[in-house]
Amino acid sequence: DQAVNLTAQGAVGGGFWGLLIGLLFLNPVLGAAVGAGAGAISASLTDIGINDGFMKDLGDGLKPGTSALFVLLRKVTPDKLLEGLREFTGRARVMQSSLSKDQEEDLRAAIEGKPAG
């Protein structure tokens, strides 16, 4: 299950490291706030990719003794990837998707720290 709140975990981890660095520079509150913000932003970017609901629905429908593999790649030549998966023809179903225009805009907004949407 990929339903873990990575943004909150990133904020906590970032807050800890920010507090530690802030202590070194005699301003722990500012360091914790900056660290928490940076951690939350970093973790929020990890939720862009394969839809959690899709993975859960597919997993719930798997028959016993079977499995599913989800691969999220940044850069890939589809022809080469599909060639490598050819040996599974007839035994597996390969599904391929790219980001929609809206998803790409949301990703860009998240990277630039702007609200999505």
What attributes characterize this protein structure?
single chain; 117 residues; mainly alpha; 2 domains; 5 helices; 0% strand
Order of helices and strands: HHHHH
Question: Quick one: overall form?
Answer: flat
Major β-sheet annotation:
none
Radius of gyration: 19 Å
E-strand count = 0
Low-pLDDT regions: 1-7
Tally of separate domains: 2
What's the rounded overall pLDDT mean?
A: 64
* Number of helices, where a helix is a run of at least 4 consecutive DSSP H or I residues: 5
Q: What is the rounded distance between the termini?
A: 26 Å
Strand content: under 5%
Helix content: 55-70%
Structural class, by secondary structure, is mainly alpha
Explain how this protein is built:
By secondary structure, the chain is mainly alpha-helical. The chain folds into two domains: 1-49, no CATH class; 50-98, no CATH class. It is 56% helix and 0% strand. It has five helices and no strands. Helix 1 runs antiparallel to helix 2. The model is unreliable at 1-7 (pLDDT under 50).
